[in-house]
Amino acid sequence: MSDTTEPNRTGVPEDAKELPDASARRTQSAKRGGGDPASRGRTTIADGVVEKIAGLAARDVVGVHAMGSGISRTFGAVRDRVPGGAKSVTRGVKAEVGEVQTALDLEIVVDYGVAIADVARDVRENVVAAVERMTGLEVVEVNIAVSDVKLPEEEDEEPEPRIQ
């Protein structure tokens, strides 16, 4: 039997041309598995994760002296002195986390002389940006309670350890 078609000049066997390319195979496998692999399953984010992110973001703002009320800072200072204890970055932060949104309550102590409204605005902006960037959650509100003002002549409630 003679072949009347033009010879294959690509060097690739004729039967190989019928195989789908890699991108087509990925599309077919994605269709078999139920869609885009990135959309399979759920991701949940614990309240504590959002609280840590918000606490660190709030502390980064100039004019924020500390987080939490006087009593929580006192207990925190005692806890920090216990060997093996670590500073609580969630002190003064409460988060309510839903599936796609979160709301935050922060309690801060500001330095004397700063404009409280400006510090509160900066804290909100920093916290919203950090939480939304890191978690993908929409921050619907950031409530800020200023519980104290740190005066220049006041001693810190968390003194430096005597042993280094």
Key traits:
alpha+beta, 4 helices, 164 residues, single chain
What does this protein structure show overall?
The protein is of the alpha+beta class and 164 residues long. It is 35% helix and 20% strand. The longest helix has 20 residues, at 116-135. Residues 15-19 have low confidence and may be disordered.
Distance N terminus to C terminus?
Answer: 93 Å
Q: Provide the helix percentage.
A: 25-40%
Percent of residues in β-strands: 15-25%
Low-confidence stretches: 15-19
Mean pLDDT: 79
Q: Which shape, going by the Cα principal axes?
A: elongated
User: Total number of β-strand segments?
Assistant: 4
Write the H/E string, N to C: HHEHEEHE
Query: What is the radius of gyration?
Result: 28 Å
Major sheet characteristics: 4 strands, mixed
Q: How does the helix and strand content classify structurally?
A: alpha+beta
- Give the count of helical stretches: 4
Short description:
By secondary structure, the protein is an alpha+beta fold.
List the helices and strands and how they pair.
Elements: H1 22-33, H2 47-59, E1 64-67, H3 70-81, E2 93-97, E3 101-111, H4 116-135, E4 138-150
Parallel strand pairs: 3-4
Antiparallel strand pairs: 1-3, 2-3
